[in-house]
Each structure stands twice: as C-alpha cells, then as structure tokens.
Amino acid sequence: MKRGAILAALALAGCGSSVDVSDDLLNRTAAGDPQAIETAAKKLPRTDPGEHGQLEDALARAMQVAPAKVLALVGRDKRLSAHAICVPFLAGDEAPRRLKELVARSRAAIESVTDPALARAKTDCLAEVTAAETALERSGE
To answer: In 10 A of CB 36, how many CB atoms?
Structure first.
C-alpha cells in the first residue's frame, strides 16, 4: 500500500505544471529562434493554462518572423492547432490600428511560404487570419 501511494505521488508530480516556461524562452520563441520554437512546441502540452496561453502567443508571434518553421508545427498535436498558433493574442485594450497591423503581419508572413508540404497548414492559418480580420471589422475597429 505504501509503495502504491509513493508511485501515485510520483505520477501526479509528473502530471503537474512542473514545466518551466521562462521569459527567455518566450522571447526567443517570439523572435523566431528555431530551437526555441521547437522547445516551446514540446512544452506546450505540459503547461498550465497561463503558461499555455503565453506559449501559444509566442508561437503565433514567431509565425510572423519564421512562418515555415511554425507552419510545420500546425496540427502536430491537438494543442498546436491553427486556431491556437497562427494569430497572436489580440488584446482588447490595444489600439485598433495595432491589432490590424498584427493580423496583417501574420497574413503577409503566412502568404510568403511556398513549400507545398505546408499548403494545408497555410490554408488553415489563413482561415484563422481571415476570421481575425472579420472579427476586427465587425467590432468597428
């Protein structure tokens, strides 16, 4: 019984949010560092909700500077969906012009990718960009 309790505690400890997401990793990911992008993608499924959102946003910002690298991740895991990592978080308190610029930057980066192997991810991400553009237009911003 005692052995079972110890094993259960060890298993639960491994399931927690023990994955460390540093500001350095977030910044390097958002800047398009290939190693950081891969590390962020690997850590994403094992993070708590707050860190999860930060990693998604960092990957979406990386899409703007390293689109082929991030497009290759789309769909690799259920948490790496086009919805999650193709468009940066659009905070309602940011200036409308700034939000439109973020979305336009994402569109331009994604459209620049010509690798046929990434065509499906590109189409999925462009659909997310279009949805973001539509939402911004509907909000009157």
So the answer is: 21
41 with 78: CB under 8 angstroms? Answer: no
**Position 21, amino acid:** V
Task: Tell me the chain's radius of gyration from C-alpha atoms.
Answer: 17
Residue pair 74/121 in contact (Cβ under 8 Å)? The answer is: yes
pLDDT band for 9, please (50, 70, 90 cuts): very low
Taking the model in full, what pTM does it have? Answer: 0.82
- Give the rounded distance of the alpha carbon of 5 from its chain centre: 37
Q: What pLDDT is attached to residue 45?
A: 86
> What's the Cα-to-Cα distance from 56 to each of 15, 77, 87, rounded to whole Å?
20, 13, 9
The predicted-structure confidence for 71-127, as pLDDT tens digits, reads as follows 999 999 888 999 999 999 888 778 888 999 999 999 999 999 999 999 999 999 999
